[in-house]
């Protein structure tokens, strides 16, 4: 189900954090939410996940207005994976992922075989089955990240929100995490990920929403949205959009205004190279290279 | 094990009583069989030791449960009704109504006192944390320091009220409230602590899943469908209510709520569905034996039971403090 935001607004301490956001995030697709620090990415995810309430506007998942749903009902369809969530390190991976079943069980429900099967599937989906019985504080950052994601998957949502899924991950683990999200979207889940790395957004997202100072400044397909002009406008850095030699997706090369010999001013945009120009060393232009 | 502890604890004391005598007395009072004990021996079992041991069990269970719940809700491994000032607040409420002679309001006044102390501690801790720039996240040690400040003030008020009103041996009574004592408990103490334990304890036990979700932080719990602000208020209000009723019959017995949940957690892990009931059980057994020690070690003089629990709890608190400091 697609997520529709209309005129969503959120104020905190007299400051407008989210300013009349309108956006449609397509169903069964991976949407990248990008924008500089403080743009309101995490806050917007919190508004969708009912961690905070919007002051105005409407959030609809398919045809259901989210704010009219009871908290538990909402948690059955919307899951949030936040890497910064602190958890008791003595909890086992399995127990931590089983917390995702909370909204389905309520206060008195007892986890049955179906719940355990869902937890096992979630552990398998993120490749965490092998360390399911270990305590969380024995895990590496990448393993913890996977556990967080598994907990959200165990919630069986139709909308999965992920805040900075590649934060603190090494290069290989970053791609594992992104591949996983893209795979979930292909399986029909609506996935929204707040990302910092524009090339990740370009390589993996089906849809990009750019947030700056609480407003949507651009939205659409990565190739249409991620232009040198936009990157300069939003991040204030000099950028050039190339074609990724391995994937054919846009590749954003950036430098700060002071670095390198800028021929013209910092804003000098170089048009994206045509895919044909680099076709010679682009083996598979259609699909991102999948790892593992 | 709790039942066995209760029976054995009742047999221990200056007058030798056999376990069989305990059973006989219980049976007679529950209407099975005829009384076989002398009136005096039966009185020792049924009127003196039995209510005291049962009160100890209820108070121990309740305090341990409150500690486990508070540790989860405040995400502070040092949280406990005694350290955060609830017990001293409850003492003030209880002592005031006793002095005014309106005993019916006892549990209510103790609850009001506990709640006032809790609010004072959290408000103080929050503004102290805000000043140190740590944001709204409560620092565990700051919270405990706030609890110490609040405890001191409420403890002093308790002492003053007793000193003003009492005619005779006010020092002993002050000590009993500040350190906690189960001397002089009767069946009405059993009723107050027992009813509170069941009425508040059962909803707390049913909150295990919510408490597990609190382990993910505010945002994490909210994303799992927990109404964070409301649950936190209800759960902390419940612990204040239960602490109030327990302190009204026992004074502020310290460290039971701190030590037992941590000890049980070492065995069961942090999941609250096992932790809560087992903490309550362990707390009951622990306090039955601590009180038995308190009334027999220096026989015929009696030690406030809080001295025993502090002797055990102090070192554990120190160890937890070191561990919190390392991970903070």
Coarse shape of chain B: globular
Predict the CATH topology of chain B: ABC transporter involved in vitamin B12 uptake, BtuC
| Portion in strands of chain B | under 5%
Regarding quaternary structure, what we see is heterodimer
Structural Rg of chain B: 20 Å
The biggest beta sheet of chain B is recorded as: none
The general outline of chain A is globular
CATH superfamily of chain B: ABC transporter involved in vitamin B12 uptake, BtuC
Flag low-confidence runs of chain B: none
Overall mean pLDDT of chain A = 84
Number of strands of chain B: 0
- Which CATH top level class of chain B fits? Mainly Alpha
The number of distinct structural domains of chain A comes to 2
Output the structural class of chain B.
mainly alpha
Helix content estimate of chain A: 25-40%
Description of the molecule:
- The complex is a heterodimer of chains A (292) and B (328).
- Chain A has two domains: 3-226, 3-Layer(aba) Sandwich (Rossmann fold), CATH 3.40.50.300; 227-292, no CATH class.
- In chain A, the strands form three sheets. Chain A has a six-stranded mixed β-sheet, with helices on both faces. In chain A, strands 2-1-4-5 form a four-stranded antiparallel β-sheet, covered by helices on one side. Chain A has a two-stranded antiparallel ribbon with strand order 11-12.
- The two termini of chain A are 29 Å apart.
- In chain A, α5 crosses α6 (141-154).
- Chain A is globular and about 55 Å long.
- The relative contact order of chain A is 0.15.
- Chain A is α/β, with parallel strands linked by helices and 292 residues long.
- Chain A is built from ten helices and twelve strands.
- Chain B is globular and about 65 Å long.
- By secondary structure, chain B is mostly helical.
- Chain B has a single domain, classed as Orthogonal Bundle (ABC transporter involved in vitamin B12 uptake, BtuC), CATH 1.10.3470.
- Chain B is built from 14 helices and no strands.
- Chain B starts with a helix and ends with a helix.
- Chain B has helices at 2-11, 19-29, 39-73, 86-100, 106-131, 140-165, 170-179, 187-205, 208-214, 217-223, 228-250, 256-268, 272-296, 305-327.
- In chain B, α3 crosses α13, α4 runs parallel beside α6 (140-165) and α12 crosses α13.
- At the A-B interface, α2, β6 and α4 of A face α9 and α10 of B.
């Amino acid at each position: 189900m697609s997520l529709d935001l209309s005129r969503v607004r959120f104020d905190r301490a007299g400051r407008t954090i989210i300013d009349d956001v309108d956006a449609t995030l397509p169903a069964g697709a991976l949407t990248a939410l990008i924008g500089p620090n403080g743009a309101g990415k995490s806050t917007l995810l919190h508004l969708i996940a009912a961690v905070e309430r919007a002051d105005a506007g409407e959030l609809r998942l398919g045809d259901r207005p989210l704010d009219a749903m009871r908290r538990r009902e909402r948690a059955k369809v919307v899951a949030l994976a936040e890497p910064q969530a602190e958890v008791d390190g003595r909890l086992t991976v399995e127990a931590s992922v089983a917390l995702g079943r909370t909204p389905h069980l309520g206060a008195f429900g007892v986890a049955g075989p179906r719940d355990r099967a869902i937890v096992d599937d979630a552990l398998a989906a993120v490749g965490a089955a092998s360390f399911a019985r270990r305590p969380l504080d024995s895990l590496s950052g990448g393993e913890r990240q996977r556990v967080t994601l598994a907990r959200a998957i165990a919630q069986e949502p139709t909308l999965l929100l992920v805040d900075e899924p590649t934060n603190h991950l090494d290069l290989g683990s970053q791609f594992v995490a992104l591949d996983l999200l893209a795979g979930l979207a292909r399986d029909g889940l609506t996935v929204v990920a707040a990302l910092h790395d524009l090339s990740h957004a370009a390589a993996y997202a089906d849809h990009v929403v750019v947030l700056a100072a609480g407003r949507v400044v651009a939205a659409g397909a990565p190739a249409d949205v991620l232009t040198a002009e936009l990157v300069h406008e939003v991040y204030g850095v000099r950028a050039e959009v190339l074609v990724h030699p391995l994937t054919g997706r846009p590749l954003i090369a950036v430098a700060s205004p002071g670095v390198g010999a800028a021929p013209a001013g910092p804003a000098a945009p170089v048009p994206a190279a045509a895919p044909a120009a680099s076709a010679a060393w682009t083996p598979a232009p259609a699909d991102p290279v999948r790892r593992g | 094990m709790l039942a066995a502890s209760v029976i054995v604890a009742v047999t221990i004391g200056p007058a030798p009583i056999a376990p069989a005598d305990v059973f006989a007395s219980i049976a007679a009072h529950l209407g099975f069989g005829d009384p076989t004990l002398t009136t005096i021996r039966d009185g020792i079992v049924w009127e003196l030791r039995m209510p005291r041991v049962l009160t100890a069990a209820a108070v121990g269970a309740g305090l341990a449960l409150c500690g486990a719940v508070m540790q989860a809700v405040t995400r502070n491994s040092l949280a406990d009704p005694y350290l955060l000032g609830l017990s001293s607040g409850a003492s003030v409420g209880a002592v005031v109504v006793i002095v005014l002679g309106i005993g019916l309001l006892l549990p209510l006044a103790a609850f009001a006192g506990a709640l006032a102390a809790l609010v004072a501690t959290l408000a103080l801790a929050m503004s102290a944390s805000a000043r140190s720039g740590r944001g709204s996240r409560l620092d565990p040690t700051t919270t405990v320091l706030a609890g110490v400040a609040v405890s001191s003030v409420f403890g002093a008020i308790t002492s003053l009220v007793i000193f003003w009103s009492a005619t005779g041996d006010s020092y002993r009574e002050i000590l009993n409230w500040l350190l906690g004592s189960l001397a002089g408990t009767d069946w009405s103490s059993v009723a107050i602590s027992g009813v509170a334990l069941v009425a508040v304890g059962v909803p707390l036990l049913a909150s295990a899943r919510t408490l597990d979700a609190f382990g993910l932080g505010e945002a994490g719990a909210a994303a799992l469908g927990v109404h964070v602000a409301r649950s936190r208020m209800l759960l902390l209000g419940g612990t204040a209510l239960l602490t109030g009723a327990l302190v009204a019959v026992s004074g502020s017995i310290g460290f039971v709520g701190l030590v037992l949940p941590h000890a049980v957690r070492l065995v069961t892990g942090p999941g609250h569905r096992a932790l809560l009931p087992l903490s309550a059980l362990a707390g009951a057994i622990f306090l039955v034996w601590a009180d038995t020690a308190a009334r027999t070690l220096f026989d015929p003089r009696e030690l406030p039971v809080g001295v025993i629990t502090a002797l055990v709890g102090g070192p554990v608190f120190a160890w937890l403090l070191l561990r919190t400091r390392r991970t903070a």
